[in-house]
Amino acid sequence: MGIPLLQTAKIGAYVLKQQIMRREKYPLVLMLEPLFRCNLACAGCGKIDYPAEILNQRLSVAEILEAVDECGAPVVTIAGGEPLLHKELPEAVEKIIQRGKFVYLCTNALLMEKKIDDYKPSPYFTWTVHLDGDKVHHDKSVCQDGVYEKAVSAIKLAKAKGFRVNINCTLFDGADPEAIAKFFDEVTALGLDGITVSPGYAYERAPDQQHFLNRTKTKTLFREIFKRGRGGKNWQFSQSTLFLDFLAGNQAYECTPWAMPCRNYFGWQRPCYLLGEGYAKTFTELMETTDWDSYGVGNYEKCSNCMVHSGFEGTAAKAALKNPLKLALLQMRGIETEKPMVADIPLDKARPAKFVFSAHVQQAMAKLKHEKPANQQKEIA
């Protein structure tokens, strides 16, 4: 099972509590970016395009724990940048787990073997290794040779030491369904505990703008992949089956960006982990002052092709709670790959895109220039 029973039970209880309290908007996963610095420069990444002064910044352990406590989500995904560059991360992870949170530590695995003994196996801790396909495809995706082999070696080491290990696979236009299905078979044979898969989001600052999927291509691609794995039943996914069904064009979900809020150096990112259009100082401010209705598929041009897990997993989780029988039948039968796809949300009334990336970067740079050197957090492992 891609999601452990303990985690399923705790998240289910959490969601049920929110429903009983009649909360319409609540977080499921805190997307934490303690730094933007990375030791790779992937062509499809829009997270590392910052001046060196900002890349040198990091969240302190106190800031990380404040975000975890303020948000209250049962799951914390630590991404970046490359989180293993953060010297104080082992301390932060330990203290997050002590709070009863499930931690997914995302890494490209280049430093994983070196850093692995800084962490302890736990049912609350999972390594999430970035792998976008087989050796040729992944190394091309991350723009560096040899990364795939290092990642596989690190996965084997982590499993030998008793850790839970997932992979995070992002797919782009041109992905071969047959090759991806074979890749899923191969990584499953490594003893993986789960696969997280998602179409790439069209970051406006990413170097490669030619290979992002539109919605139709996404649905077709995932149908072809699942078709080669008995409706996806051949593989363990660390995601809701209803979300995977959505990727295959069998559900027409609206985005729930508040379900996976993002905290990074700039603050709480509006409106979501993928789209930075301003920042709130606190989680409460994010939730109460963001104009949520102005974002999402059909509402905003930048969101038109998004089908990423950070936007729609929360929607799928709510759907599962409302109709557990539907979820159970889907898990038993597998994902439909032959019947007509459901009608999608119309895009013709979406408001035009605004480009505000430079504004918050300039504000941050101005702030850094006025800070004393002693207060600047520059130490990176």
From TrEMBL:
Gene3D superfamilies per record: Aldolase class I
Cofactor(s) demanded: [4Fe-4S] cluster
Keywords: Iron, Iron-sulfur, Metal-binding, S-adenosyl-L-methionine
Keyword Iron on entry: yes
Domain Radical SAM core: 24-228
GO MF annotations, alphabetized: catalytic activity; iron-sulfur cluster binding; metal ion binding
Pfam family, one: Radical_SAM
Annotated PANTHER family: PEPTIDE BIOSYNTHESIS PROTEIN YYDG-RELATED (PTHR11228:SF22), RADICAL SAM DOMAIN PROTEIN (PTHR11228)
NCBIfam families, A to Z: HpnH (TIGR03470)
Protein name: Hopanoid biosynthesis associated radical SAM protein HpnH
Organism: Roseiterribacter gracilis
